[in-house]
Amino acid sequence: MYEGLLTRYKEYLPITENTPLISLAEGNTPLIRLNSLSDELGINLYGKYEGLNPTGSFKDRGMVMAVAKAVEAGAKAIICASTGNTSAAAAAYATRAGVKAYVVIPDGKIALGKLAQAIMYGADIISIPGNFDEALKAVRDIANTEAVALVNSVNPYRLEGQKTAAFEICEQLGKAPDVLAIPVGNAGNISAYWKGFKEWHDQKGTLLPRMHGFEAEGAAAIVRGEVIEQPETIATAIRIGNPASWKLAEAARDESHGYIDSVTDEEILNAYRKVAAQDGVFVEPGSAASLAGVIKHIASGQIKPGETVVTVFTGNGLKDPDTAMSSADIKIQKMDDVEAMRQHLRDGVAQL
Ligand code: F0G
């Protein structure tokens, strides 16, 4: 039986005999070949579907490790700032470990599904008028003086847990891809993947990918080289103007001979619709930033024809039903009898 990341990758993680091996069977997510997009784009494209983690995002990988270490150190409560997914994961793993979760979120800027999760898992939810960056600053201050463990990705155990996704990709493909494309918000995940690829290569000789990270244009602090005071993007998950792991992300980019670039909301929405409609994978808008970036970098020649590319789909499309409903061309037809349905189907099938 699969028992989650702390058991699966125990020897590669900072686990001691006192670390509680908590689990919701996170990790072990599918690497899905995107057949239609591969043909269209002329590359060998895979999606690492992190939306199939227990709370629907990659955050579970880091959170299981961070919460386990917090409990090991005697914490009774954890705290995080979040654009939504971190709060869902923190709330779930806190419940699992028997501690209290405090989550601080930007008012009105978190997707509905994520808020519903934090509510259902029983977190103490605090909403602030500011953005994620301000929420992060507040929780860092609070964690300095209060008896609560900070579980944002500034906590190094988060990156330790998150690096396991790179291990899985190497195991699933048999080696590292040529390119790893990933959305960048607070920049923890790109840093964690790079750490994971390097460690796995050191152990198993699986080679190293080029890291291509993508920020949303309205929140592209690293690309522009300056803090963005008022970040804006439809992809609320990555609506972050002052990434905490900025330097680590730049190191991942430089060491891997990769790029950190930006994509517009229009490019994000295009990729978001395409991967669902063409390859049957529903991801949240923030996750589609990586695919939008792949499309952009094929056009610009930064990704070459025939290369093997893994795009990380960080969160499940079900997290954000509002964006799905408002961005798609909705064709729901009301019919009141079977004959009308039959005729509708005949007309449709005749055109296939
Ligand atoms: N994709 C999704 C779906 C996310 O929720 C996040 C970050 C990212 C990508 C970016 O990852 O921050 O490591 O660069 N979400 C955080 C949160 C900020 O609070 O849930 P990153």
Automatic annotation (TrEMBL):
A Pfam family it matches: PALP
Presence of keyword Amino-acid biosynthesis: yes
Modification type N6-(pyridoxal phosphate)lysine: residues: 59
E.C. no: 4.2.3.1
UniProt cofactor(s): pyridoxal 5'-phosphate
A biological process from GO: L-threonine catabolic process
Stated family: Belongs to the threonine synthase family.
UniProtKB keywords: Amino-acid biosynthesis, Lyase, Pyridoxal phosphate, Threonine biosynthesis
Originating species: Enterococcus canis
Molecular functions (GO terms): L-serine ammonia-lyase activity; pyridoxal phosphate binding; threonine deaminase activity; threonine synthase activity
Keyword Cell division recorded: no
SUPFAM superfamilies: Tryptophan synthase beta subunit-like PLP-dependent enzymes
Protein name, UniProt field: Threonine synthase
Annotated Rhodanese domain residues: 78-121
Catalytic activity entry: O-phospho-L-homoserine + H2O = L-threonine + phosphate
Listed CDD domains: Thr-synth_1
Annotated function: Catalyzes the gamma-elimination of phosphate from L-phosphohomoserine and the beta-addition of water to produce L-threonine.
Positions contributing to pyridoxal 5'-phosphate binding: 85, 185-189, 314
Pathway(s) per entry: Amino-acid biosynthesis; L-threonine biosynthesis; L-threonine from L-aspartate: step 5/5
Enzyme class label: lyase
Coiled-coil intervals, chain numbering: none
